[in-house]
Amino acid sequence: MYHNTRTVLKLSIFPFRHNKMLSEARRMSSGSTPKTFNLDLIKNAYPRWPDWMKKEMASNHAGEVGAVNIYRGANTALWMRSFIFLSPAEMELKKFCARHLPAEEDHLRWILGAMPSSNSSWLIPLWHLSGRLLGFVAGICGPRIFYVVTETVETFVEKHYNHQIKLLEDDNDLTPEERQETHELLTAACADEVHHKEEAAGFASHFQPRFYDPVIRAIVDIGSSSAASAAKYI
Ligand SMILES: [Fe+2]
Ligand SMILES: [Fe+2]
Questions:
Q1: For the segment 98-157, what is each residue's pLDDT rounded down to a tens digit?
Q2: What is the distance in A from the centroid of ligand 2 to the CA of 31?
Q3: pLDDT tens digits for range 3-20
């Protein structure tokens, strides 16, 4: 444990400066095949995007900004806690965040590449701040709470992406190639979110549930759906 704590201290002493480098290293070590999409094809079709797609992509952008910041907020919380002590469960949470953050950064990069910046929500700074705060508070509260929050957020995001995939399948505004590329992007992001949800649920199941968990889930679910809706219109 002494060596583990020392290692965490050494690796995380400058979390912000090394964040990009660590994310790249984790992505390379994850063994997952990098996914590539013809993002320009999707972006160049913007004048023909149906109205629902403009709104949903703005919402996706806001959601992925929030997701990246949830994990960065948790990393900051764990970094602060590491100065005192990191339990085995907290060490496991650190690995969990290290696996998921690169995927969320990929999603954000995909959405940003597939969408003109003019389609962004005006509230992005708010989703940045609220995601960071949620991740930090959940991380400070401990692994169990963080897994419950992550499972709830990802359950919402899975439904959010599936709704768009269904709308896309019924769309006639895009060309078949544009529709196919957008479909692949949304499906890949959704598959990652399902994986995140299942992993969080698996880790959460190692802990004794608490009577207030439904309250946490309800607050996070209402917050996620409100944020997603607001990003479509503001
Ligand atoms: Fe994501
Ligand atoms: Fe995710």
A1: 999 999 999 999 999 999 999 998 889 999 999 999 999 999 999 999 999 999 999 999
A2: 18
A3: 343 333 333 333 433 444
Which ligand approaches the C-alpha of residue 195 most closely?
A: 2
Q: If you measure from the C-alpha of residue 157 to the centroid of ligand 2, how many angstroms do you get, rounded to a whole number?
A: 8
Measure 144 CA to ligand 1 centroid, in angstroms: 21
Neighbours of ion ligand 1 (CB under 5 A): 64, 67, 104, 107
Give the C-alpha separation, 131 to 68, whole Å.
8
> CB of 27 within 8 A of CB of 100?
no
Which residues, at least 6 apart from 120, have a Cβ–Cβ distance to it below 8 Å?
Answer: 58, 61
pTM: 0.80
Query: Which two three-digit tokens encode residue 220?
Result: 């996070």
